């Protein structure tokens, strides 16, 4: 097996393992952990002008409560839209009445709304390490997106401690996050 085949297989196995750890959380535990993350986000981050977040899938942290609070205070919220497998994501305005439709991966996605450029991205962490690297679902979407956004938005990974690993063995395209927030606290990787 070549080196790159080996790391691809290792990443694939790790992606599955990370999601299955979350799927084993009960509903009450998931809600409690998400609530703790929301409180830490609230006390750590300034309210953004335009906040991108993700509609939770596969038992990802649910941070919709803080997005809703920020929207009441004047923030505009946006959800990612997959345009093409090889393209960066784009972000479409979301509000409480937005119509969402499952995209090619089954992720609820706005069917209309303004295209926005976020100054803050709340990014779910399928897996992560203390150096600030994220493991997603293998599409490379966020890395491609961050590589093109100027100025770079503040990137805040939101995850559960059960998805922390020693190292995700970052590759050259992997982008480091500015903050990682879990139920255990807010961390600035590299500090
Ligand atoms: N809730 C949520 N929405 C999100 C993201 C996210 O991480 N979470 N994304 C963050 O970027 C984008 C979607 N990224 C995705 C990337 C891959 C797959 C997927 O199903 N991949 C296949 C395997 C592909 C492979 O290994 O090559 C799979 O899991 O079966 C799904 C979503 C945009 N929306
Ligand atoms: N900046 C980039 N330009 C071109 N291709 C990229 C870039 N970033 C990532 N990719 C491609 O995407 C593939 C998957 O990347 P990776 O395994 O890091 O995905 P991921 O972060 O888990 O996915 P996602 O963000 O969609 O959840 C890489 O093998 C690479 O080919």
UniProtKB/TrEMBL annotation:
**KW tRNA-binding (keyword) present:** no
For this protein, the record's Pfam families field holds:
5-FTHF_cyc-lig
- Keywords, sorted A to Z: ATP-binding, Ligase, Magnesium, Metal-binding, Nucleotide-binding
Catalytic activity reads:
(6S)-5-formyl-5,6,7,8-tetrahydrofolate + ATP = (6R)-5,10-methenyltetrahydrofolate + ADP + phosphate
Checking InterPro entries in the record gives: FTHF_cligase, FTHF_cligase-like_sf, NagB/RpiA_transferase-like
Q: What is the lineage of its organism?
A: Bacteria, Pseudomonadati, Pseudomonadota, Betaproteobacteria, Rhodocyclales
This chain belongs to the protein called 5-formyltetrahydrofolate cyclo-ligase
GO biological process entries:
folic acid-containing compound biosynthetic process; tetrahydrofolate interconversion
Which EC number(s) does UniProt give? 6.3.3.2
Query: Which cofactor(s) does the record list?
Result: Mg(2+)
One GO term in the molecular function aspect is: ATP binding
Question: Can you tell me which residues bind ATP?
Answer: 11-15
Q: Which Gene3D superfamilies match?
A: NagB/RpiA/CoA transferase-like
Residues that bind substrate: 60
Entry similarity comment: Belongs to the 5-formyltetrahydrofolate cyclo-ligase family.
Matching PANTHER family: ATPASE INHIBITOR/5-FORMYLTETRAHYDROFOLATE CYCLO-LIGASE, CHROMOSOME UNDETERMINED SCAFFOLD_24, WHOLE GENOME SHOTGUN SEQUENCE
- Which domain of life, per UniProt? Bacteria
């Amino acid at each position: 097996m070549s080196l790159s085949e080996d790391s691809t297989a290792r990443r694939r196995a790790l992606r599955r393992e990370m999601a299955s750890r979350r799927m084993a959380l009960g509903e009450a535990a998931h809600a409690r952990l998400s609530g703790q993350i929301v409180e830490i986000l609230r006390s750590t981050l300034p309210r953004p002008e335009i906040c991108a977040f993700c509609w939770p899938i596969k038992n990802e942290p649910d941070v919709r409560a803080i997005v809703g609070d920020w929207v009441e205070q004047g923030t505009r919220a946006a959800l990612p839209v997959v345009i093409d497998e090889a393209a960066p994501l784009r972000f479409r305005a979301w509000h409480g009445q937005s119509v969402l439709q499952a995209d090619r991966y089954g992720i609820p996605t706005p069917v209309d709304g303004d295209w926005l450029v976020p100054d803050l991205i709340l990014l779910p962490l399928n897996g992560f390490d203390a150096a600030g690297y994220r493991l997603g679902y293998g599409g490379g979407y966020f890395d491609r997106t961050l590589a093109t956004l100027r100025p770079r938005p503040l990137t805040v990974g939101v995850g559960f401690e059960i998805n922390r690993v020693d190292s995700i063995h970052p590759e050259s395209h992997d982008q480091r996050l500015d903050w990682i927030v879990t139920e255990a606290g807010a961390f600035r990787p590299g500090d």
